[in-house]
Design goal:
The complex is a heterotrimer of chains A (1041), B (302) and C (118). With 1041 residues, chain A is mostly helical. Among the domains of chain A are: 1-126; 466-939, no CATH class. In chain A, 72% of the residues lie in helices and 2% in strands. The longest helix of chain A is centred in the last third of the chain and has 32 residues, at 745-776. Chain B has one domain (2-299). Helix content of chain B is 70%, strand content 1%. Chain B has twelve helices and one strand; from the N terminus they run H-H-E-H-H-H-H-H-H-H-H-H-H. Chain B is globular, with a radius of gyration of 19 Å. The termini of chain B are far apart. Helices cover 68% and strands 0% of the residues of chain C. In chain C, helix 1 (2-22) runs antiparallel to helix 2. Classes of the chains: A mainly alpha (1041), B mainly alpha (302), C mainly alpha (118). Chains A and B meet through helix 33, helix 34, helix 35, strand 5 and helix 38 of A and strand 1, helix 3, helix 4, helix 5 and helix 9 of B.
Amino acid sequence: MISPIHIITIGLGVAFALGFVNKKAKNFSATIMLVAIGLMGAISVAWLTALLQGAETVQIFTAGFKPPYSINLMMGIHEAFLTTLINVAGLLGGLYLLQSLKNAGNHAIMVFLVFIMGLNVIIMTRDAFNLFVFMEVVSIATAGLIILTETGKSIQAGFKYMLATGIIAGILLLGIIFAYYFSGTLNIDSLAEANITTLKGGSVAVLMILVSIILELKPFPANGWALDVYEASNPGISAMLSAASATALYFVLFKVLAIANENWYHILTVAGMLTFIGSNLLGIKQNKARRLLGYSSVGQMGLLMAILGLKPILGDKLEFIAATILVSHYLAKAGLFWLAGIVENDNIKNWSALRRKPILLVLFGTFLFVLIGFPPFPSFYGKWELIMQLSSNQHYYVLALILLGSFLEGIYLFRWLGYAIKMDFETLPELNINWNKIIPPVLFGVLVYVAGYFTSALVPELSALNYIPLLFIAGIYFIDSLPAYIKNTVAIIGMSIYGYQILPPLYENDMLRFIFAAIFIGGGILTLTAGYAYKGKRSGFYPVALLMYAGLAYIIQATNTLEFFFGWELMTAGSYFLIIRGKKSMPHGLSYMLFSIAGAYAILAGFGLSFAGTGTYNLSSLAGISSNITIIFSLLAIGFMTKTASLGLHIWLPGAHAEAESDVSPMVSAILLKAGVFGLLLLIINMGHNTETAQIGYILGWLGALTALVGNLAAAFQEDAKRLLAYSSIAQLGYILFALAMMSHLGLLTAMYYSINHFLYKAILFLTIGAVVMRVGTHMMYKMGGLIKNMPLAFIAVLIGIIALSGVPPLSGFGGKWLLYNAILAKGWYLQGAMVLFSGIIAFLYLFKLIYSVFLGQMKDNLRHVKDISIWFAIPVYILIIGIMIISAKPEWVLQPLGDMISQWYPNAALAWNGGLATGPYGYWNGNGIMITVGIMFVSLATWLWMMSRKAVQVKQFNIVYSAEAPQRPETTHISYNIYAGYNKALGWIVAPKITAFWDTMTEWIHSLAQYVRQLYSGNGQLYAIYVLAYIVVVYFTMIF
Amino acid sequence: MDFELKRLGFTLLGLLIVLNWGLLMGAAMRKIGARVGKRYGIPWFQPWINLVKNYAIRTSLSHGIMFYLGPVFRLSGGIGLFLFMPMIIGSQLWLNYSFQGDLVLIMYFQFFGMLGMALGAGEGGHPYSAIGISRGLSQFTTIELPLTLAIISIAIQYDTLSIIEIVQAQQGGFMNWTVFTNPVATIAAMLSLLGVLSHSPFNLVIAPNENPIGPPTEYHGSFLGVLQTNRAILHVVEAALFMNLFFGGATNWFEFFAKTFLIYFWSVFVGVVFPRFRIEQSVSWFLKVPLVIGVLAVILYM
Amino acid sequence: MEYIALGTGMLVILAGLWAIMTRKNLIRIIIGFSLFDTGIHLVLVAISYVKGGTAPILDSTVCIQDAAQRIVDPVPQALVLTAIVIGLGVTALMLAFAMKMHKEKGTLDIRSFKDLKW
């Protein structure tokens, strides 16, 4: 095995030797540099493999003396791992910077090599003074690189950097010399043993050492210099600073922390959290890409610092948590800075330029999701473990702050992603891409998935996870260049096989999950069928659609909270990309994502608390929770209600559903919303039997009723057909929430029946209306009219859909109303029940408006020749209609097994079945008989009237009784716009957008706060130096008191 | 099987009785209205003349398939309500097909005809039809709210949603009628009834004294005949619903005629006294006094 | 004696910091920075001073056995040498930055280099 000291000798030696190389042989020098870094990396990797296989940690003593008489280095598992990271980053970063380095000359090449070498030493050394020297070496090298590869304002930034790090280094040196004075040693391990914090002056020495290392990690607000450097230097350098330097310095803090006492853990936690929250808050107001990355970078280091501060409670989990988050940050931040160098445009709105090369967009999205901590990336597992540990140790404030900070980070990262996906890029200049600039980010992009896979292998709770769907999605991505119909077929086949595998066992064992799985997978196949209507490639559609369905399937199959959350996040990611595909969906995608993240964090916190209470991740253990029931239930319910879009959390839905593509709307409406229902159902069957949850249930009941009322009322006042349907979904989910909240047998039965029905008719309506929109090219109902003549297929589908939705007998919706009446009476929720029933009647307003404005009334001249809806939309629609007919005629086929299933948890079997006749506690209902009676009557009357009117003459469009005038223009004759003006006058105040206004105000406040706080960073380097000193003083006084 | 046929026969007979009673009652009410307004009014047989005339008209125009299906829906709605409504308690044969569904079915089957008619009129393409429908639907939503509350109230009171059981519980003297045992719910429901039967002041939907307006604007001939048939049936059935729920039901046809006449007369009585409301006025009105009374009716039983 | 050195060192550090925090001219700031460095070096040397000790060189006057009592601690002296070298490098680099900054804006006032902020 090669001694680790050769990492230094190679680095230093080659750097010196390069001084003798002919100045013009730049290619040669650069190659030598890369080879040298490669060799250094090879040594690290060799040690890493050896140590992983059980080799002993080695100490290297220079000059043949033992410490304190000599400098010593250490090569353990941490050092090997981190130097590997540094050298890999160095190799790829060097490659990336190739042109800049060569342009800057041989000096720059040497400096770069020294920089990487210095970082290696910082990691390996166990000597305090040596640490100082190489921190200075790295600092000077950094400044040198900034000045050598100068870009625009980088000089100013470099000066501020030198000023700040110079002061920090001075303080560090003072601290080291005092520590030496009190302990007589410079070796970090001996210093730790000397326990100098117990001495009066010794604690000052420790203070100076630790505070300067903390300052090197750029704590808020003493970090203006770092932000400037991130913003202004060559992105390749910023990548190195953010990925390599920060990693090395973090490890310095890790090892030097041994000399401190436990007070320092608090300080680290506070400093870290302050940085995490502070910089993420300021990031919200930032629109320059690289500075934004700087804020994010600083914030992530703050989080890591706080994690280190939490060492006493994280115990042996610390390394896993810190390593996953550190590696994620390392890969993602380097990748993002490298992308910043490729985009060469600092306005985040112009990052749509990435779309010129779709692989770059994929990388960009990947890195952002890594930063936020989505599965399957390492940070996901780290954050999960962190939250679990925090909550089992009752550190609720830190937990809440971490989630808050992550949420703030989500705001700007996803806004940025939205810009990249949606903003116009045609006007932006072509990207200037060299091979050496593209390889590093691509490699890191691949690495991050690999790292995620290996991390998941370390988590025992995920051992049962089936990776085949994810691999299948990756496969679909690789055939993205094929035409849509091929990918559609592959996707449908894949989902069918998957459904064939998971559905039959669920049918045998678990009816609840079977029904949801059937909705998710069956609905998935049906909605994908509509995809055949699309021509071309439909780039990027299939991976994300399948990702959503895979997430949904994982949720169904989850047996523990981690698997559930894993699926939940995948589903969120997939649906986000689906939603944002719509033409005007950028803001809606963002608000969807933000509500989803916030909801996911509520779920995460809830799972954390339940883990704290039960000590297990098992989903069924939710039933055994005995403490914090109210909070856990509320957190989880709020999380799930962001997906069911209950009142207050609903504002994302109308836009997201309305602006989505025609076949995406049913996916995210009829299917996706059921994920929230499934979550709530799980929650209620497990936790619904407590007195505390019954009280929350009462509140949820009112909330559901209000959601139903407001949703339906708002739907009645829409002019946009898809928005109308979206509000209708909100209301329908309000019914379901109301029914679930009853926590009774009939309540759950009603909710399940409504869920199935809502899936059927909302899929029919959204698919049909979506297909109509594809033909007519507008969502606005008043621009349509009279389409029944051109689109009989669509008309019949919508007619069936609205009859089923409205609850008019004999179709399936009536069963829901009947169950609702019985459930309300049995539960005794009369007033809220009346409100729900009232909103059910309001539904007639929008249903009539929908079908009338689109299909009846006067046809517009420009639509005279539109064709009926695409056959690929009609097929799934008519399959769903068959489903509605079956449920309407044979409700017992669905309701009886559902009743048996619910009896497991709520045993009073409330319905007695006698063939098709259901007898409830209050009334009776024979779906089958009603269907036959109404059918016979309707057909006989229709025949009779046809006999009488069969000679009727078909008249032209304007041949109507019109008080002596001749109506000429359909636009003035088709009454549709604001058709319920009178109703609006009377009741419109209920749907005044107060909730949207509330969230807008919140947004405004956060932005104003960020704007106010960020004026700290005035741009004056001197001020930044003052901040640094003030930081030291503040920490000093904190230590004293 | 024999019984099924017999039931069908009696149901059809009942339908015939109800139709004619509805026509007669309609004529009587118009006569009363005319006399209050110091006019002579129509002859009592005018509705039959209208029906025969309309069914006999030979010229006929159609705007399309939905236009033709509208009246079919409408009449199916009326006859369906009749089918699911028990008429005379005490005889299995006059209970029609009410064994297939309870009060909830009646409540929601009201919409069957309304929705179909709205669609049919919609295809007529006349703007006044659409205006009429939008007003009708707006008004109907709020009419239903006090009624729903009243129904919840009596469902709690009688612990059932079955109309037959509700009627049976009211037997044995008029003091057992809901109107006396639960007057608050009855008041709420009777106020709703004014809207259900859409007489003045809640008749803006069809507004008979102005230009032709409302859903039937484009309908004529046999289409209009069907609608008139339905109107006659529907009014009797609605009155029968209130009779069953609040006034002890009927054990024979004479009681049926008397009670439905009085219930129907209530709306006419109010109609001739009060002028017509605009749509936002009627919407607001139903959400004030009747709503409060309805809530009170429920709270009393909570 | 060592307290005088220590005290002087501290004063020089403070003077340097004062210059860094209040002077507006880049060169003056850099001078302040040099003062700060020098003060630290003084403190370093003062701390390691042993009263009456000689230079830490093993020769005829100092034998190995009693070296620990008679010589000043050699480690800080070694450190201070390194620190001086580093300080030199930093100062030189800062001056290079100042030069480029002057070339860019024609001024040395640190307040006019606020292009990067927020």
